[in-house]
Amino acid sequence: MTLHEHIQKHWKTAAVVVVGGFIAYSISYFW
Description:
Blueprint: H1 3-30
């Protein structure tokens, strides 16, 4: 499996992790 195929297969999971991490960072930063 190439990196591109791996990204296509798991982009939703990656997006959830990134968004979740960003929200957690924002909360911890502002609070």
